[in-house]
Design goal:
heterodimer; A: mainly alpha; 0% strand; B: mainly alpha; Arc Repressor Mutant, subunit A; 2 domains; elongated
Chain lengths: 95, 208
């Protein structure tokens, strides 16, 4: 999946690239589904067919990917305090 | 105490049949299938309530309910999604009313606004630069996320932080998959707007 993305979303391509995508609102939804690993076959196919011809979509792809990664990696993960685990177990008489 | 509150029943994802587990089985399920998710649950509770004490109470309530209604859980099925759903419903019923979140925007209203704007075609500018987002620190991303109405914040956390599938999110949130997709899409557009405003105010470079 990641290989396919790298080969598809390459800026260096011989094909002429559009700088404005008139379907960008719809494309953005497909891009998000692809990044979430939740795209349908039709969405993946659309992505494969059109992405490398559209600079606008390539830019949207990179920004979406970057924001998703920022949410994934930059937010600190709050760990459950040990005393809460102990309290829950005590209330249920578990050890 | 044996009387179950009607709203509590709604919080528990009911299965077609209940399983009568023995005490040993109940403890075993709780320790092996429920407890391993407690850090994710706490993190989710904290992101929802934005308060450590409330997160503590919410996680405790959720785990006590999960144990009480353990016969509704089918062993070997998706315990994490089952627990997240109880936590989300407990949050709606018990905490949301007294939530300390600064945004008092009614999410339904926001969703409706975005729906209606979509027909007029919102301009999705790409003037927020990848480099600006990459340069941001965790607190800046957290502030942007926290400023979203809770239902939008929730889908982003479930998807991007916890890695739930759209199908799992649909079950946790009791909404159709199509609504998961559209709510996630709107949530991300809102988040992008916040990040863009933030980047501009902090003097991060934005495209002209």
């Amino acid at each position: 999946m990641s290989l396919f993305m790298q080969s598809t979303v390459s800026i260096e391509t011989d094909k002429p690239q559009k700088t404005y995508c008139e379907h960008h609102a719809e494309c953005l939804k497909k891009i998000q589904a692809v990044l979430d690993g939740q795209a349908t076959e039709a969405e993946k196919e659309h992505f494969r067919q059109n992405m490398d011809e559209c600079l606008h979509c390539i830019q949207m792809y990179h920004l979406e990917k970057c924001i998703k990664e920022a949410v994934q990696n930059k937010l600190d993960k709050r760990l459950c305090p040990d005393n809460l685990v102990a309290t829950i177990k005590a209330k249920l008489s578990l050890s | 105490m044996s009387v179950i509150m009607s709203e509590e029943i709604e919080e528990i994802p009911l299965t077609a049949s209940e399983t009568a587990y023995s005490d040993i089985e109940r403890h075993d399920i709780f320790n092996r299938e429920f407890m391993p998710h407690i850090n994710s649950m706490y993190n989710f509770a904290f992101r929802l309530t934005m308060d450590e004490d409330d997160a503590n109470d919410l996680v405790q309530d959720t785990y006590l309910k999960a144990f009480r209604f353990i016969s509704s859980f089918e062993r070997g099925t998706n315990a994490k999604a089952w627990l997240f759903r109880i936590l989300k419903n407990s949050f709606i019923n018990d905490y949301r009313k007294r939530s300390k979140e600064p945004s008092k925007v009614d999410y339904q209203e926001v969703e409706t606004t975005y729906n209606s704007e979509e027909s007029a075609e919102v301009e999705h500018t790409t003037d927020l630069r990848v480099e600006s987002v990459q340069d941001m620190i965790g607190d800046e991303v957290a502030n942007a996320l926290n400023s979203l109405p809770v239902d939008f914040r929730t889908v982003i956390i479930l998807c991007d932080v916890e890695g739930f599938t759209y199908e799992e999110m649909a079950k946790i949130l009791d909404i159709p998959i199509g609504t998961v997709r559209s709510r996630l899409h709107r949530a991300r557009n809102l988040l992008k707007d916040k990040l863009r405003t933030y980047a501009a105010s902090m003097g991060y470079q934005t495209e002209d």
